[in-house]
Structures are given as structure tokens and as C-alpha cells.
């Protein structure tokens, strides 16, 4: 008889500031930018309904979903469901947000490139109305 291992891949990490996130989100830093790497990587855990603000990356970002289910949406585009095993390749300077679904937590590894000393530009909050509208647009498909 075998038992399933339900341990998460990385620890939940430190709480992220509500200046950039709505709800409870946490970061475990994995790789910092250094002389060999022009990117950073971290495991970001979102409690249910938690999400980023709208934001952009000057050299793009890759998300590797490792747990749960959530949403990804680019400005003026329909939201998409993202789930464990999905890889999201975000082009440079594309305004977007990502976060957990309304009923499940979601964790992804974010690999974010630098352009000079900048890797993210934080924008406005994703309102509850925008979040609900994203969910509704998926539900109505």
C-alpha cells in the first residue's frame, strides 16, 4: 500500500505586501539576480481569492504553476484558468495579473527577467469587480 505525499514543493514563505497584492500571498525566494543570472525566481503562494495588482515586466516573466488552480489575465483579454503543470510565458511590457481561484489556493514559481535594474512595474489594484468579471467570463464559456 502506498501513501500520497501532500507536502508542498517549497515552504509558504513570507507574506507579501498588500501594496502589490490583494488577499494573502507569500513568497519563498529561490534565486536572486547575480553575475550569472539576469533574473530572479521565487515560489509565490496565493490563498483563495488572493491576486496580484495589474503589472508589467520589461523583459517578460514565466510562471510555472506547481499547486492548485487560479487565473491569469492580460489587459483587454479574457481571463484563463491556470492549474498545476501549466506554464505561462508572459511577453515583455504586457499588462496582466494572476492569482488564486475563489475556492482554491494556487502556487507558482515566477521567473522574472531584469532590464537594467527593473523587473516589475506595479499598477492599479485588480478590483473585486474585475476579479468577479474574470470568473464570470470563464464560467460563461
TrEMBL record:
Gene3D superfamilies: Jelly Rolls. Residues 45-107 form the Cupin type-2 domain. It comes from the Bacteria. This is Cupin domain-containing protein. It comes from Flavobacterium cupreum. The lineage of its organism: Bacteria, Pseudomonadati, Bacteroidota, Flavobacteriia, Flavobacteriales.
Amino acid at each position: 500500500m502506498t501513501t500520497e505525499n501532500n507536502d508542498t514543493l517549497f515552504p509558504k514563505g513570507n507574506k507579501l505586501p498588500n501594496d502589490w497584492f490583494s488577499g494573502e500571498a507569500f513568497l519563498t525566494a529561490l534565486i536572486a539576480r547575480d553575475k550569472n543570472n539576469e533574473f530572479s525566481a521565487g515560489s509565490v503562494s496565493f490563498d483563495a481569492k488572493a491576486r496580484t495588482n495589474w503589472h508589467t515586466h520589461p523583459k517578460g516573466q514565466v510562471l510555472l504553476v506547481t499547486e492548485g488552480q487560479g487565473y491569469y489575465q492580460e489587459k483587454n483579454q479574457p481571463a484563463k484558468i491556470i492549474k498545476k503543470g501549466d506554464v505561462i510565458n508572459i511577453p515583455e511590457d504586457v499588462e496582466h495579473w494572476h492569482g488564486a481561484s475563489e475556492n482554491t489556493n494556487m502556487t507558482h514559481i515566477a521567473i522574472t527577467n531584469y532590464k537594467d535594474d527593473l523587473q516589475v512595474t506595479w499598477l492599479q489594484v485588480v478590483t473585486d469587480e474585475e476579479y468577479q468579471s474574470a470568473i464570470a467570463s470563464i464560467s460563461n464559456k
